[in-house]
Design brief:
Blueprint: H1 16-35, E1 39-40, E2 46-48, H2 49-52, H3 57-62, E3 66-68, H4 79-84, H5 87-94, E4 95-99, H6 104-113, E5 122-131, E6 143-152, H7 158-174, E7 178-184, H8 185-194, H9 201-208, H10 211-225, H11 230-240, H12 246-256, H13 261-280, E8 285-288, E9 302-308, E10 317-321, E11 336-342, H14 343-353, E12 366-368, H15 373-388, E13 393-395, H16 402-411, E14 416-419, H17 422-427, E15 430-434, E16 440-443, H18 445-452
Helix pairs in contact: 1-7, 1-14, 7-13, 8-13, 9-10, 12-13
Length: about 450
């Protein structure tokens, strides 16, 4: 017997009902993007590895899916290199392309390639899948969708404020209670300088970004492993353990960073964002989190992360400012800021909390029973008129037993069944059965359209 087919770990199939739910999420986010003035672009699923490598840090580079070259990919590789079994070195010769890891780096590449056609500031959004060679686990997939919104070509902190509003708007519409956590990489850089470890900024941010996952002891152990001294860790602890409301935490960090230009600039930026957002009275909780680091190397200013309050899952949205990203593609001095909604994790949260409205599951509204060629031809004309009115209608493709056709309607949750026989064709009416109540009545085409477009 043939082996049962399977799909790669960390990927999923989605049924029609699941796709209706996912499209409800995508449509909600897409409407919000339009509401805030973002325009849609798309980029290829694969990019040149020269575009992707070195943009996500050492850990991110390891998670890139590389695409093997077509044709004779052994060409130019010596026997010595093959026998060395150096996977990283061989991959660099076997592979010239890779699947995109996120949407931000391809966006930066897009901006540089199309700079002469773009009017700045440029507000773009993308809703596309990305791929990471990660270890699959709950809430973490190897293929998943990101929904990104970015503003590039503007230094104004009003962009950060609007992104917080956008996050709040999306999750209010989806009815997911969230906490929007915010920090600033300048604050983190200032902390590294103050504790005497400026060259270890990447190691420090990677470690403290894991605080929720591995706890304080785990972070301390990782910092020691990276060569951070006991004295430096001792200076870092009060920051990692900072308590209180946003103003109290700001006061604590402002005192720690007093006299450090980089850190003071970060405190100034975060204060403006928090004060402006507070005056707008958003629905979501907005929290200054001094342990928030966001592991990606390209962030340089404000950073965001969104946590669902009612479900134990990783962040469901995040982002930040990246002043230097386009510089690696030869376009210096162009600042950007953006956020990404993790559609797959949002989908998991929505499923656990059953937050989908009833009309989000798109079904056929009426099924026409098929009694034979003559009745089917008559039904097709009526269905044409209904579809022009925006009614979703279908006909059972073969003439068959009524019980089988009714079973089809039930299994697909179709609320109405239209029955047209000899008498209905003569009278110009349709026998319409409500599948929930069992009630049946005679209606004209216009009356049926009115019923189904209420």
């Amino acid at each position: 017997m043939a082996a049962k087919p399977s799909i790669p770990k960390g990927t999923r199939d989605f049924s029609p009902i699941e796709m209706s739910k996912r499209n409800y999420i995508f449509d909600t986010i897409r409407r919000a993007f339009h509401l805030f003035g973002f325009q849609q672009i798309e980029t290829p699923a694969m990019e040149n590895l020269t575009t992707l490598m070195g943009k996500y840090g050492e850990e991110g580079d390891k998670l890139l899916f590389k695409i093997q070259n077509s044709g004779d990919y052994f060409n130019g590789i010596t026997d010595e290199e093959l026998l060395s079994r150096n996977a990283q070195k061989l991959a660099s010769k076997f592979c010239e392309k890779g699947l995109r890891y996120d949407l931000t780096v391809p966006f930066a590449r897009y901006v540089v390639m199309h700079r002469n056609d773009i009017v700045f500031p440029f507000k773009r959004y993308q809703i596309q899948p990305v791929w990471r060679a990660d270890r699959p686990q709950k809430g973490r997939y190897r293929e998943f969708y990101q929904c990104d919104a970015d503003v590039i070509g503007s230094d104004s902190l009003l962009n950060e404020v609007e992104l917080v509003q956008l996050i709040d708007h999306v999750f209010t519409q989806l009815k997911i209670r969230v906490a929007i956590k915010i920090n600033n990489r300048k604050i983190l850089a200032g902390i590294a300088e103050v504790i005497g470890e400026p060259e270890k900024i990447i190691d420090i941010t990677i470690a403290i970004d894991k605080l929720d996952k591995i706890g304080l002891d785990g972070v301390i152990a990782e910092l020691k492993e990276k060569g951070i001294t006991e004295a430096s860790i001792e200076k870092l602890l009060p920051i990692l353990q900072a308590q209180g409301n946003n103003k109290e935490k700001l006061a604590t960090i402002a005192e720690v960073l007093k006299g450090n230009a980089t850190g003071e600039k970060g405190v100034e930026e975060i204060s403006f964002i928090l004060d402006t957002v507070a005056a707008l009275q958003v629905n979501s909780e907005v929290e200054l989190d001094l342990t928030l680091a966001r592991g990606l190397n390209y962030y340089t200013g404000a950073i965001f992360e969104v946590k669902a309050l009612d479900v134990a899952i990783g962040s469901i949205s995040g982002g930040g400012r990246y002043d230097n990203l386009t510089g690696v593609f030869g376009m210096d001095g162009t600042s950007g800021v953006g956020i990404s909604f993790g559609a797959d994790r949002i989908y998991d949260v929505m499923n656990q909390l059953n937050l989908y409205p009833e009309d989000s599951i798109i079904n056929t509204q009426v099924l026409f029973v098929n009694f034979g060629d003559k009745e089917a031809a008559h039904s097709l004309g009526i269905m044409n008129a209904l579809r022009r009115s925006g009614v979703s209608a279908e006909i059972y493709p073969e003439a068959g037993k009524m019980k089988k056709q009714m079973g089809y309607a039930n299994s697909h949750n179709i609320p109405y069944v239209a029955i047209i026989g000899e008498s209905e064709m003569e009278n110009g009416t349709i026998a319409v059965k409500d599948m929930n109540s069992g009630e049946q009545k005679q209606l004209t085409t216009d009356e049926l359209a009115q019923l189904l477009t209420k």
